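Bit of a strange request maybe. I'm writing a small parser for structure token strings and I need a real example to test against, not something I typed by hand. Could someone generate the tokens for this chain?
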Amino acid sequence: MPRVASPDSRQRRSSKLAPSRFSHWPTILVIEEPTVRQLLKTRPRMRGYRALAPVSIAEAVSCVDAEAPDLVILGLRDDSGIELVRKLKTRTSAPIIVLSARFDNDMKIAALESGADDYLVRPFHRKDLLARVEMALRRSYHARGRSTMLVSGDILVDVIYRLVSVRGKRIALKPKEYEILLRLTESEGNVLGHREIVTAIWGAPGPRHIQDLRAYIASLRTKIERDPARPARILTEHGVGYRFARV
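Reply from user aminoacidic:
Good idea to test on real output. This should exercise your parser:
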């Protein structure tokens, strides 16, 4: 199994944008914020998060209990949102980022006093939101004693900033390459079928996606293998899929 570095080593109808649950993928609960849900789904730097989008307040509360999210993003529309912040804070220690179209200092103070960790007023730049999400997730991981680093041999993955280092050198990965690599490392030593990987990454298996997967695997090998022609980490299980070898 890949090991997780200690924190001290580097300091239904609920819409799941990442179709499979990955233990190292930060989970974000997005309440009444369709724009943010789409941003998490489509923007390359925000890929690699598992987003849950409940369709009602009752379902949002149930998601907090069942899923233990690492972060909550809440769209604040009226005073009822302040009460929801209070309610969520009694059920989770996860940071809460409130997004609002109201530049109202009293509302902001009320949200923060009710337990919100951050308050962002629209319109905002997506990079501003991303920076706040990353900072909040890092605080959340450390507060819970979880490491932000996944270590597999000479490969290090920072699951918050989605950065990958191989043999001490930072490498640049495309969003899909990162998602595939994280999926493989989490299942180190086990065979993952083509359809299983495709469903997890793209959401729907198809012939084109299988070809895309093979192309991404070939590209990954050039970036992480010492000899891409003789791969030692990402192994092909002919007719089945791929296995990330233990080292």
